[in-house]
Design goal:
The protein has eight helices and eleven strands. About 40% of the residues are buried. With about 230 residues, the protein is an alpha/beta fold. About 30% of the residues lie in helices and about 30% in strands. The protein has one domain (about 5-230): 3-Layer(aba) Sandwich (Rossmann fold), CATH 3.40.50.150. It has an eight-stranded mixed beta sheet, sandwiched between helices. Strands 1-2-3 form a three-stranded antiparallel beta sheet, with no helix packed on it. The structure holds S-adenosylmethionine (SAM). S-adenosylmethionine (SAM) binds near residues 89, 90 and 145.
Amino acid sequence: MQLSKIKWINNNPYSIDFSDIYFSTDDALQEAEYVFIEHNQLKQRFSSLKNSHFTIVETGFGTGLNFLAVAAHWLTLAPLDAQLHYFSIEKYPLTLTDLTRAHALWPRFATISSEFLQSYIKLKAGNNIFSIAEGRIQLALQIDDISYALPQITQKADAWLLDGFAPAKNTEMWSNEVFTQVARLSKLNTTFATFTSAGAVRRGLQIAGFKVDKHTGFGKKREMLSGVFTGNAI
Ligand SMILES: C[S@@+](CC[C@H](N)C(=O)[O-])C[C@H]1O[C@@H](n2cnc3c(N)ncnc32)[C@H](O)[C@@H]1O
């Protein structure tokens, strides 16, 4: 297992290997809320859930900020007897020290974070299952390369959080093979959201069968993408 190499700049994590930030330095939590939660309509979907579970797949677990933000909404809004299945893939997990430092940035998630961090100590290569909040949330964190990990998943997603580093710096996370897997694990009306508006990502997702929309981006980003799976490749 290869751990991430991080440099802290103004108390924000920065990847030395990818020369990129993990999240917006404008306001990381607001970015997660705006890009991933709002553009997948997660709050509305959690509150009106009729099924026994809801499945999210995230590419790039990083600090787990998206996970913490989604989990907090789930615990507030979803029916008590429903379970969130959150799959996330990460090739270069943060050290426990870096992860603990990152989580300290968001004290409102302290309860979920401390439960998660207790098990993170035992993190291993391959699949790691975390049962959180008395089983209301199941996190399956796969420590592998995206190209190996995505084909292992069999459960279709209700929503995708596409969150690799910037496509120009992290091509493996945004390849056509990845988009083909995203489509395989999608059903009619599965949604996705991502901070990037790179043309190759837009076209790749369209070819894979998503209707893709552009929106105003968060912070310094001009545009972002979200969309819905129709199965009709353009
Ligand atoms: C922008 S960060 C993710 C931020 C994260 N969602 C959060 O809430 O902090 C992108 C992540 O993708 C991971 N990554 C990069 N290349 C990868 C690959 N080939 N396979 C799996 N994960 C990869 C990086 O290690 C990094 O943690």
